[in-house]
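Co-fold these.
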Amino acid sequence: MALDLSRTALQIDEMAGDIQASENVRSQRLKAAVSAAQDFSIDVYLKKIQETPSASWALPGIVGHPGEAISAPPPYPDFIVVSADGSHIDTNRHLPARCYVINTGVATLAYGASPSAHLYNTPRLYATEQEMMVRSPDGAQEQQIEGAILGAKRSVEEIRALTKEIRNTPSNTPTLGLLDGTLSLIGLASQGYHDYIRKEMVEEGFALALEEIGDLHKERKLALASYVSLPNHAEVIRALRLTTCEYEAGYLSRTCGYRGSVRAPCGPCVGGIRDRDLYAQLLLPGQRSMIFEATYPVIKNHYRGMSIGFFYLNAGEEIARVEIPSWVAEDPESVNIVHSIVLDQSRRGHGYPVALMEAHEQAVISGSDRKIFEDLLHQVLYSHSLPTYTSEKQRSKRLRWT
Amino acid sequence: MSELIAGRIGEIVEATTAAFTARCHELYVAPALGTLVRAGDNNPVLGIVAEVRTQSLDPSRRPIAMGVDEETEEAVYEHNPQLNRLLSTEFQAIVVGYESESGLKRHLSPFPPRIHSFVYECGRDRLREFSSSYEFLPSLLNSPIGPQDELIAAFLRYSSLTQEDAQAYLVGAGKALAPLLIGQIQRLNNILIRLIS
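Predicted complex below.
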C-alpha cells in the first residue's frame, strides 16, 4: 500500500505548528549568539575549556574572532578548478556475487584566457577476496568492506582521482581541488570500528592523498577544499555556548556536556541553533568567517600530523561550510584561492559550485543503472555457466502480484 | 588530423533502414538541412539531412538562461566552459540510397548503417550523380522526419548548384513532383515557391 498521505499531511501540519511556536525562542537565541560572537573573548574561552573537561562537545580551535567577516579577495583572471565525486553500489546479499562498485566522477574546468572543460568518470568493480576485506596487519582480524567502511573507501577513491587529475593540470595556473562534503572522515570514529580499519582507510588512504596534494602545493599555486552545502554543524555555537553559560564550570561539565542535542538548552543559553544560522546574520554575500580548527579525535590520531580547518562562507544563495587542510589554512595565498574560487564557482553554478555539480553528474549511478548492473551480473554469470540466484525477497519485489 | 578524420561530421548513434541519427563531433558544426551525407564504410548508406538539433546530452538536465550578465553570446560559453561538453548537436537523415559494388542505388539499403559509423558530407561529384535522377523524390515526400516540403526544396536548391543548368534542373524537378502530388495543388505550390526563394 502507498503512504497514506492524508494522515501524513495532518502530522506535517502539526509539526509545522510546533516549529512556528518555537520560532520566537529560536530568534532570541540567534540574537544572543550574534552578540556572543561579537563580544567573544579568547581568554574567557580558553579558561572555560581548561575548567571544563568537555570533550564530548567537540569544541573548535579558535585563533581569531568568530564575529569577524572577511571580504573576498579579487578574482583570479585565470584559474582551474578540479572536482571529484563518487557514487557506489554496495554489496548486496540478494545478488548472486559478492562485489561492490565505486564510480568516481571528475570535472576539470579552466577559466580565463584558455577556457576548457574535461569531464569523465571511472567505474571500478571490486570483487576479489582481497578487495572485499580490510585485514589487520597480523591477519588475525578482518572486516568486510560495506556500509560506512565502503563510504570511507569511496572518499579515498575520490581524493585519489582528484590527486591524479591535479597532476595533469598545468602548474602555472592557480588551481583549486574541490571535494564534496567534509574532509573529516568521522564516519569511522565510532568504537565499533577497529583501529586497523582507520589506519588503512584514513591514515594510509585519505590522509595520505591529502598529504600528497600538500606536497604538490609546495611547488605551485594549488589549494584544496571541500564544500558542505546547507551545513548542519554547530561547533561555533557550542564554543559560544561554553563562553556564555551562566552556570559554574563544575555544573556545566556534569550536566550540560551530557545533554543530548535534541534537548532544549536552558534559559539564556545560545545553544539549539546551527552555525549557518549565526553566519547568515554575520556575513554579507561573498564574505567568509575566520578559520576554525576541527578537533575530532580521528583527525588528531590519523591525519598524519595535519589538521582540518573550516570557515563559513556566504556564497550568495546559502551559507556554506568550507573545509581545508592545515597546509592551506597556514598559507594566506592558498586561503585566498579557496575563498575566491569557491565563491566564483557558487555564483556561476547559481548557488552551488559548478565543478562539484559536474563531478557529481559524472559519478551518479541512477536507479536504472543499478538495475542494469544487476541484470548484467546475472547475464554474465549465466554465460559463464556459473550459478545465479537471488533471494525470494528480491524476487517478490520484482514480481509484485495481488 | 588526417584528411579522413577532418572530413567526418559525426557518428551514428541510432539507425533504422529508413533513417539514422548522428551526433556531430563538434558542437554546432552540423551539415545544413538538405545536405547529402554518407554513412559507413562498407556499402555506405546515403541520407539527406532532415533535421538538425542541439540539446542537452542528458535529457533530464534542461539548459537554463546563463547570459543575463554577459555582453555577448561567446562570453556565455567562455565563462561556462562545461557547456561545450554538456550540449550536443545531432542531425537526423532519411535514407535515400546506398552505394554498392554495382553502383549507386536510389532506394533503401537492405541494412541500416552500424552504430558509431562515421558520417561524411558527400562531395559535389557524388551529389551531382545522385541528384541527376529525381527517383529520390518519393522518399523525401514521405519522410517521417522534419518538414517534408522544406526539406525537398532545400535539397533541390542545394543539388541544383551542382548541375550544369540549375534553372532547367529545378523546372524538371517541378515536373517530376506534379504527378506525385496529384490532388495536393497547394502543397505543390508551396514547394515550387520555396524552390525559387
